[in-house]
From TrEMBL:
Species of the source: Baryphthengus martii
UniProtKB keywords: Adaptive immunity, Cell membrane, Disulfide bond, Immunity, Lipid-binding, Membrane, Transmembrane, Transmembrane helix
Origin: domain of life: Eukaryota
Statement: the UniProt record of this protein carries the keyword Transport: no
Pfam families: Tetraspanin (PF00335)
Protein name (database record): Tetraspanin
Membrane-topology descriptor: Multi-pass membrane protein
Family assignment from sequence similarity: Belongs to the tetraspanin (TM4SF) family.
GO CC entries: basolateral plasma membrane
Length: 213
């Protein structure tokens, strides 16, 4: 279970879409990377779970109450971290996407300035458009100011006259989907941990009550 959680967390951490966006820099301002806080918690929990799993297995083989008690204590701490990560993700679910959309809007405004060479807003906006396959902050701007579309958007999107993909909507979909995976992983880990704590205590009590020859 620890290996699975660690693998999912590393995949989310190095996913091309999120890294392309969250590593962007607009002038001196870095793209908001609050999203990675939950990922780092999952990575830490997955790695520690792998170690704790070996600890519990060895303790069970040796029938050591000390090792099983340590195993149980570590599980309680990890479970508390999982609950904290879940609460953090639920509270910041909308704020993460909002911060990224504000960063995109600032870059978009700079990209429309008369002197685009003085800033890298155009490059940032193009990265958003190519990564998320979208064009513009909303459909209204696409109908009012059509001239910028050929300069900032992909040719396939510019040719689409009926429905222009909204970058705000794409950002919401990207982070809601990723946070949904984090939530599923946290729930799976929490359920496994509950069973592990129950079984470790049952085994520890069984060893204590058994006769020693």
């Amino acid at each position: 279970a620890g290996g699975i959680i660690l693998g999912v967390a590393l995949w989310l951490r190095h996913d091309s879409q999120t890294t392309n966006i969250l590593y962007l820099q607009l002038g001196d301002k870095q793209a908001p990377n609050t999203f990675y806080v939950g990922i780092y918690i999952l990575i830490a929990v997955g790695a520690v779970m792998m170690f704790v799993g070996f600890l519990g297995c060895y303790g069970a083989i040796q029938e050591s109450q000390c090792l099983l008690g340590t195993f149980f204590t570590c599980l309680v701490i990890l479970f508390a971290c999982e609950v904290a990560a879940g609460i953090w993700g639920f509270v910041n679910k909308d704020q993460i996407a909002k911060d990224v959309k504000q960063f995109y809007d600032q870059a978009f405004q700079q990209a429309l300035m008369a002197d685009p060479e003085s800033n890298n807003g155009k490059a940032v906006v193009k990265t958003f458009h190519e990564t998320l396959d979208c064009c513009g902050p909303d459909n209204a701007i696409g109908t009012v100011v059509p001239l910028w579309r050929h300069d900032l958007c992909k040719d396939s999107i510019v040719k689409s006259t009926f429905e222009t993909p909204n970058c705000h909507r794409k950002i919401d979909e990207l982070f809601s989907g990723k946070l949904y995976l984090i939530g599923i992983a946290a729930i799976v880990v929490a359920v496994i941990m509950i069973f592990e704590m129950i079984l470790s205590m049952v085994l520890c009590c069984g060893i204590r009550n058994s006769s020693v020859y």
